[in-house]
Design goal:
mainly alpha, 12 helices
């Protein structure tokens, strides 16, 4: 019975979307706790990629399997990690002080729209009309949530706004690249391992360049929190690439909507955060948008 349930989950884009988005949503409150413990954002980003990569690699090796290291696989790992993990993180950490966290969050929720636009341009796994409606409704809900955070009005130069707009574009390129360049015959777990370890090495190099390698020792002061984040990120990436495989880039890009709702509930019930009625209305709109997308996916 457990095997049947696992197979159903593995082949269901809907449940993979919900599970991946929920696990991603947990990283936001965990990241907030890490920030309150004075952990550098770049260090926390490294922990997410390195931790997930090492845990999943251990599972892969224990099952008697390896991770391909041929030229085309290494290229896939490098490009996938650069556009999906490294570049967005660098941009986010740099633009938040200039644009505010609320405005940056709005830019992040443009990822499904950017992915849809590039999918249309390159004709890669295009969603149906109902799927497009779901994306637009979800975006409306996400904008409603972020607009109530009070960070949108921060003045910023055009250069910083353009830099911020590169966040959803980078995520969209990563979403499409993973589908278009998916190595023939490869499984999602090995690609998750390779991409995360590649991201960890790139981030570690950046930490070293900034002469901030001592910041990694700060993780020892929050061992339980760090371990929790590693387990959550490992679980998320174990299903993230499978969602990419069965759902396509545009459907996958909506994990941000699910994550926004989960982060909202987690912040309210576990961190004591308080939100207005409009924020909860936005969360309800997000759920409606996901509903449209789920129905559209089932009709494919």
């Amino acid at each position: 019975m457990l095997e049947k349930a696992f197979k159903y989950l593995k082949d269901s884009p809907t449940w993979l979307l919900i599970l991946t988005g929920a696990l991603l949503g947990l990283t936001f409150p965990l990241g907030k706790l890490a920030s309150e413990a004075s952990i550098a954002p770049l260090t926390w980003a490294w922990l997410i990629s390195a931790g997930a990569g090492i845990v999943l690699l251990s599972i892969q090796i224990s099952s008697g399997k390896t991770v391909p290291l041929s030229k085309n696989y290494l290229q896939y790992y490098l490009i996938s990690s650069a556009f999906s993990l490294v570049i967005p993180n660098i941009l986010i950490f740099n633009v938040i002080p200039k644009l505010g966290s609320g405005f940056t969050s709005i830019l992040f929720t443009l990822s499904p729209i950017a992915t849809l636009a590039l999918s249309s341009l390159w004709q890669v796994r295009m969603p149906s009309r109902l799927g497009v409606i779901g994306i637009v409704v979800g975006l409306a809900g996400a904008l409603t949530v972020t607009l109530t955070r009070g960070e949108v009005g921060n003045p910023a130069s055009l250069n910083w706004i353009l830099a911020g707009l590169c966040i959803p574009v980078s995520l969209a390129i990563g979403n499409l690249y993973r589908t278009m360049a998916w190595p023939k015959g490869s499984g999602p777990l090995e690609l998750a391992i390779g991409s995360n370890l590649a991201a960890a090495m790139l981030l570690l190099a950046m930490i070293a360049i900034r002469s901030d390698s001592a910041a990694l020792q700060d993780l020892l002061s929050i061992k339980k929190l760090a371990l929790t984040q590693v387990l959550v990120s490992a679980a998320m990436f174990s299903v993230f690439f499978r969602l990419q495989q069965v759902g396509g880039p545009t459907f996958l890009s909506q994990i941000g909507y699910v994550a926004a709702g989960v982060a909202l509930f987690a912040g309210t019930f576990f961190l004591g955060e308080k939100y207005s009625f409009i924020t909860w209305l936005g969360a309800a709109i997000i759920v409606a948008g996901i509903g449209f997308s789920v129905v559209a996916q089932k009709h494919r």
